[in-house]
Amino acid sequence: MVNPRELIAKRVARFFNAGELVNLGIGMPTAVANYIPASSGIMLHSENGFIGLGFTPLAGVMEKDVVNAGGAPVTMVPGAACFDSGQSFALIRGGHLAATVLGALEVDEKGNLANWMVPGKMVPGMGGAMDLVAGARTVIIAMEHTTKNGSPKILRKCSLPLTAVNEVDWIVTELGVMEVTKQGIVLRELAPGVSVQDIQSKTEATLIIPEIIGCMEP
Amino acid sequence: MNKLATKEDVFARLKDGQVIMIGGFLNTGTPEALVDILIEQNIKNLTVIANDTAFLDKGIGKLVVNKQVARAIVSHIGTNPETGRQMNAGELEVDLIPQGTLAERIRCGGAGLGGVLTPTGVGTLVGEGKKQIISEGKTYLLELAIKADIALIKAWKADKYGNLVYNRAARNFNPLMAMAADFVIVEAEEILEVGSLDPDQVMTPGACVDMIIQG
């Protein structure tokens, strides 16, 4: 069995095409960068103010003021461009991002997303997440299918405060790939060894099962 | 024109209860020396407008730990547990604002605009109590301009007139804030003679800057 995070990251990386601008959120989505080769022609946007996010530098060779949105040292690829926070979010809201990849606490069958607070418990703030989800042309959620104690995260209706309404397009988990449509959540691919019954039993929303379901290749 | 200033000149401008914009994004592009002056002088009851409250031992985080902030207008507090603790204890008021909306509200403040229409936050807690405007079938929130008494800015290079150049990801909120406050104080890593910066390189025009100290 492949490591679930690796499976998710590899699959998400295959959504993108040469020439596209993509933003990867903090946490699991960041791992997607490991599967986007420099030769792919895909450019990564870093909301703290540049396009052209590259690999983590070797220890001791970090360039001053070159960090990602989590404050960690990164590199800039050839063709990178720097800008201020106003332009960074103009790029985001203005539809210039082909896609954004974010984690989630909850997603529901209307494409609603909750990922910024748990009232009374965890209130880190939304940072750039609300703008990313409202502005990117495609919103991809990359997350583990259930919570740590096994409760579903893909719900009929989100219970936590929302990050955005009707914006999620795809959900990629270690069990499969799902597309959010007007009719509901359609199961598009299953991970190796996972059955329709397996994935449905860990999902509160009722999945729409098409005639042909692809294999989520590792 | 020479705007080079001393620490004492900066002290004289800072007062309890001021609204202060501070540039930076987590650990990058924050005027640490200017923040240290606020701490040395123990200026209290501040309203701080910034992207985030950084870390316990960095930048704006130190002001929070030292209990100098009464209200924080920011997009993120998750990296500084003390901000959350003070917020839950009712010691610190926190306004959480989507990062792009925060940037635009500051830009409006410096650009003579009353506000901006954004799709960000529609249908969420952020939209509650705000005016909605529908244009060409799409719903937007009206987000109003914000301004400050003082902006504390971190530049890489400054000439003595105050023309500024920022480095890499240290630019972030700095150019926006340098337009949106009544009095703008810059901490620069390198201070140059007027005329040494190519006008095409300048990111913040010197006309916006009131004071410069060596960072």
Secondary-structure map:
The complex is a heterodimer of chains A (218) and B (215).
Chain A: H1 4-13, E1 21-24, E2 43-46, E3 50-53, E4 76-82, H2 85-93, E5 99-102, E6 106-108, E7 113-114, H3 129-135, E8 138-142, E9 154-155, E10 170-172, E11 176-181, E12 184-190, H4 196-201, E13 214-215
Helix pairs in contact in A: 2-3
Chain B: H1 7-13, E1 19-22, H2 32-40, E2 46-49, H3 60-65, E3 69-74, H4 81-88, E4 93-96, H5 99-111, E5 115-118, E6 132-135, E7 138-144, E8 148-159, E9 164-165, H6 174-177, E10 181-192, E11 211-214
Parallel strand pairs in B: 1-2, 1-8, 2-3, 3-4, 8-10, 10-11
Antiparallel strand pairs in B: 5-7, 6-7, 8-9
Question: What does this 3D model show about the protein?
Answer:
The complex is a heterodimer of chains A (218) and B (215). With 218 residues, chain A is of the alpha/beta class. Chain A has a single domain, classed as 3-Layer(aba) Sandwich (Glutaconate Coenzyme A-transferase). Chain A is 15% helix and 24% strand. Chain A contains four helices and 13 strands. Chain A has helices at 4-13, 85-93, 129-135, 196-201; strands at residues 21-24, 43-46, 50-53, 76-82, 99-102, 106-108, 113-114, 138-142, 154-155, 170-172, 176-181, 184-190, 214-215. A ten-stranded mixed beta sheet of chain A has the order 4-3-2-1-5-8-10-11-12-13. The model of chain A has no long low-confidence stretch (mean pLDDT 95). Chain B is an alpha/beta fold and 215 residues long. Chain B has one domain (7-116, 145-214): Glutaconate Coenzyme A-transferase. In chain B, 22% of the residues lie in helices and 29% in strands. In chain B, strands 1, 2, 3, 4, 8, 9, 10 and 11 form an eight-stranded mixed beta sheet that branches. A three-stranded antiparallel beta sheet of chain B has the order 5-7-6. In chain B, strand 8 and strand 9 form a beta hairpin. The longest helix of chain B has 13 residues, at 99-111. Chain B starts with 6 loop residues before the first helix and ends with a strand. The relative contact order of chain B is 0.19. The model of chain B has no long low-confidence stretch (mean pLDDT 97). The A-B interface holds A 46-50, 63-67, 69-71, 76, 82-86, 88-90, 92-93, 123-131, 134-135, 161-165 and B 25-29, 51-52, 74-79, 84, 87, 96, 98-104, 106-107, 118-126, 156, 166-176, 203.
